[in-house]
Backbone:
């Protein structure tokens, strides 16, 4: 590629300034936009065309998970590299499952992040080693995509009726999914499920 058009997203102004410096000084990259959260990134995505986005995972308004879910199925969606300092287990696995193209920890060197973005722009996927056949330590990974979406809605404070309307499903179907969700998380009610989500998931 002659140059790589990128968008940089991080909730920390200091980190965002550092990323802008790193990629702005490299002639292989053209920074199309920067954003402080996932919601502003999605607004930029609607207006701009670019190859790769480097985004955080724990962000206000829309988390990294929310962004990846929003991009699912969209034609010509940019390739996403999640760059996070979160120590929560299983995030790289979740990024892979949600269709992300790469993962890089903030503990990694800037050179590794740059190499990751270059590889992703060239069509490769870049993730740290993970044994995908091994059971995940994070119970959230055992949930189906629909169950994960419902759990996120619970965490947003929505009622069963509101969830049914949101996803276009019946109230009985919501209850069925929640029953399975509670069993997988080994909890008894929505309050415990939300607490588990906040502890092991991606809300911030």
Residues:
């Amino acid at each position: 590629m002659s140059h790589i058009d990128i968008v940089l997203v991080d909730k920390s102004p200091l980190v965002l300034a550092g990323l802008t410096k790193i990629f702005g000084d490299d002639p292989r990259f053209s920074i199309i936009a920067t954003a402080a959260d996932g919601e502003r990134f999605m607004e930029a995505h609607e207006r701009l065309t670019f190859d790769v986005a480097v985004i955080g995972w724990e962000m206000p308004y829309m988390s990294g998970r929310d962004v990846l879910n929003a991009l699912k199925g969209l034609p010509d969606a940019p390739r996403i590299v999640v760059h996070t300092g979160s120590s929560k287990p299983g995030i790289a696995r979740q990024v892979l499952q949600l269709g992300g193209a790469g993962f890089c920890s903030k503990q990694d060197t800037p050179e590794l992040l740059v190499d990751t973005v270059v590889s992703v722009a060239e069509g490769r996927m870049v993730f740290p080693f993970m044994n995908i056949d091994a059971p995940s330590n994070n119970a959230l990974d055992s949930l189906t995509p629909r169950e994960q979406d419902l759990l996120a809605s619970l965490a947003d404070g929505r009622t069963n009726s509101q969830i049914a309307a949101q996803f276009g499903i019946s109230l009985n179907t919501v209850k069925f999914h929640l029953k399975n969700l509670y069993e997988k998380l080994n909890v008894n009610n929505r309050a415990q499920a939300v607490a588990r989500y906040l502890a092991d998931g991606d809300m911030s």
